[in-house]
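Hello forum,

I keep getting stuck at the same step: I have a sequence, I want structure tokens, and every attempt I make locally crashes halfway through. Rather than fight my setup again tonight, could one of you with a working pipeline run this one for me? It's a single chain of 220 residues.
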Amino acid sequence: MKEHRNISIADQIFEQLERDILSGKYRRGDVLSELKLSREMDVSRTPIREALLRLEQEQLLSESGRGMTVIGISEQDMLDMYDIRLHLEGEATGRAARNITEEQLANLLELTELQRYYIERQGNSSSEHTKNLDSDFHELVYRCCGSAVYADVLIGIHKKMTKFRMASVSKQSRALLSNDEHMEIYRALASRDPEAAEAAALQHVRNARDRMTQMQKGRE
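Reply #2:
Ran it on my machine without issues. Output:
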């Protein structure tokens, strides 16, 4: 990675490190060194420092005296984020039923069908595609709700759950269930039915939380 403009490079480094932390590449307790990252990424320490400070502000890192220590997202954080989604996501999806355009509905259906295609054709190896399409599906629904505040909060939470969402779609059977729930949300939105849309969204979040909780218990 060659440095041209510190701001641009710092943004790229921030996004890469954020992905690596949220995906679990860097584990809780790992220490990120400016010097080591500077050598690995072939950039000066200035954009590295800027990116690390932004990650600290996002509460993904903390200063330890030896460097920035990865906090990451804990299992309790995951449960808290599901609780927040249960408070906000139904309302946002109900609002989306009132605001969504025909073009946005078509895009939503395309995302749902494409996700199904990858799950059925690639099975358990489709998790990266499935996770990305899941992100696109939910982000579109959030942006259709008509509230930038709801959208920003929910998109941020959904991104922070990357590691857990990857795990939840790593098995084909779970991924298919999630895709079925996406289709239910789509149908409610296409019917312009706010109550049905809210109910479908809340059931989807509850099911995702319960599946993830069962997975975590199975690892104990």
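The beta strands are 31-32, 61-63, 68-70. If your local run keeps crashing, start a new thread with the error log.
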